[in-house]
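Supplementary material to the annual report.
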Amino acid sequence: QVQLVESGGGVVQPGGSLRLSCAASGFTFSNYGIHWVRQAPGKGLEWVAFIRSDGTTKYYADSVRGRFTLSRENSRNTLFLQMNSLRPEDTAVYYCAKGDSGTYYGHSEYWGQGTLVTVSS
Amino acid sequence: DTQMTQSPSTLSASVGDRVSITCRASQSVEIWLAWYQQKPGKAPKLLIYRASSLESGVSSRFSGSGSGTEFTLTISSLQPDDFATYYCQQYYTSPTFGQGTKVEIK
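Predicted assembly:
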């Protein structure tokens, strides 16, 4: 069965960095794009970023562009989200979610359980 | 960015009611729209994709309609498990979500 498992969340000071991982199994990872979506406490869903299946093309929300960087290692079925210059407003549960295509955004039929990032001094 | 606006923000209903949630896009997203259900502390669950396609395993009491800028999620007969928050998401351009509709017990 398809599984996505996020890790790497925690508490970090404003201006700090954190790297999230998303480990995938149960499908051919190298064939699908992957999204990151976040949810601030008590708030709605916000799309963060998307990486195509081959890792060559990445898309970011305006709120994180220039600070967050997506990468993937298809040989390890793993996705990474490097988050730099973190701000209190980045505090959220971060989900990785499988796209339904290798190239275009698509909908997300499978989601991880999420990892909490807290940016606070 | 394409803005997505859901209405209502909160919906109070009883078991057995037929309920509808509307999602409006600030520009056409054709049929590239999904609906998700989320319960507290859980990841979202895909219900509908491409505006009207029912995700495998999802109850047929859920249905989606619309195209362009106006979309509707309908639950034909509300069940106790359906009390949750619902989000629309467009993925025609850089994805965006609606603000959510909380369906609560009347």
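The longest strand of chain B covers residues 19-25.
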